[in-house]
Amino acid sequence: MNVIYSVFSLLPFSWADYKFMVNALVAVVLIAPLMGILGTMAVNNKMAFFSDALGHSAFTGIALGVLLGIKNELISLVAFGVFVALVITRVKNKGNTSSDTVISVFSSASVALGLLVLSYGGSFSKYSAYLVGDILSITGKEILCLLITLVAVVVIWVLIYNKLLVISVNPELAASRGIKTSVYENVFVVVVAIVVMISIKWVGILLINSLLILPAAAARNVARNSRQYLAVSVMFSLASSVGGLLISFYADTSAGATIVTVSAIIFFVTYLLRKK
Amino acid sequence: MASENGCGLCKISVNKIGVRKGGDVLLSDVSFELHCGELTAVIGVNGAGKTTLVKSILGEIKHEGSVGFESHDGEKISKVTIGYVPQHLDFDRSAPVSVEDFLLVGRTNTPICFRRNKKLSKELDEALETVGCLDLKKRRLGELSGGELQRVMLVNALYPLPELLILDEPVSGVDAGGSEQFYKAILNLKQNYHMAIAMVSHDLGIVREFADNVVLINKTVLKSGSAEEVFDSEEFNKVFFHVPGKEVGI
Question: What fold, for A17-205?
Answer without folding.
Answer: ABC transporter involved in vitamin B12 uptake, BtuC (1.10.3470)
